[in-house]
Amino acid sequence: MSHANAQLTPAGRLRLAQLVVDKKWPLRRAAERWNCSVSTAKRWADRYRAEGRAGMVDRSSRPARSPGRTPSRVERRVLGLRISRRWGPARIAYRLRMAVSTVHKILRRYDCPPLAWTDPATGVRIKGTRRQVNSYVHEAPGDLVHVDIKKLGKIPDGGGHKVLGRAAGEKNTRRGKIGYWYIHNAVDDCTRLGYSELLGDQRKQTAADFWQRANAYFNSVGITVQRVLTDNGSCYRSKVFAAALGEDITHKRTRPYRPQTNGKVERFNRTMLEEWAYAQPYRSESERAALFADWLHTYNHHRGHTAIGGLSPADLVPNLCGQNS
């Protein structure tokens, strides 16, 4: 690429080539006139004969063939997973057994914005910035279990705005009291193993009963819970929940107004919304609720997690698949 003050800009190349081709100057004389080598003068003269004025511009340095480039078929699979699943480079790489750097270059080549810059529902690019997050992982299963409640509005019979459109969907929702799910979640910090239930409220007795069932589930797969981390909700500050934990489990609480402290279960909530709750248009809440158990099974047994090297919780909890039963 020539700079603005160079002699052999596209206009200078044209004049050099015209001296050789049109005015029949010898190559050596033209090269001395433009202070360049004979081979350079010959190159621009030959290109002028073949292409005319259009041949005087810089050509791309990209090679004619790239044998090492990822095949187009694989690139389409990468883009398909990005669009349909909203996965990042690491998860796509684990699924397709590729290098993360290769997937990242493919996404950049096709100008795919970071997921943080797109709307989760529509995929449309919005303004956003990346944040640097200090992450940690406990070494042993059961060292810390994150517990939280996610409130989720139910879908009216006939569908909401995703099925009927915004106006009709909102009208259908206002016809009666549809209510909410209070999804109680427990996620092991080390293995990302999740236990979750769709419940009707977030009262202290409901939270305590949920933890007893969650703790029994973790024990059944060989995980002994040592500590539980929750937010400062009233149900978790109750004596009933403390009694459900017992004396052997330490209860820790997050800092007020700092949900990042309980980030593992917050990420679980986000994954649950993206891959189950809002993954497709549903025509009723019963239709969506019927798929919850299947999604949770996929999450625990088949879904690769980028934070644990593309493995699933089942890969880190052998008894989850019954090997030690």
Q: What distinguishing features does this structure have?
A:
325 residues; 5-stranded mixed β-sheet
Give a verbal description of the structure.
This protein is of the alpha/beta class and 325 residues long. It has 14 helices and five strands. It has helices spanning 10-21, 27-33, 38-51, 72-85, 89-96, 100-109, 161-164, 166-174, 204-220, 239-245, 263-277, 285-290, 292-301, 313-316; strands at 145-153, 180-188, 194-199, 227-230, 250-253. Strands 3-2-1-4-5 form a five-stranded mixed β-sheet, sandwiched between helices. Strand 2 (180-188) and strand 3 form a beta hairpin. Helix 1 crosses helix 3 (38-51), helix 4 (72-85) packs across helix 5 (89-96) and helix 9 (204-220) runs parallel beside helix 10 (239-245). The chain is elongated and about 100 Å long. The termini are far apart.
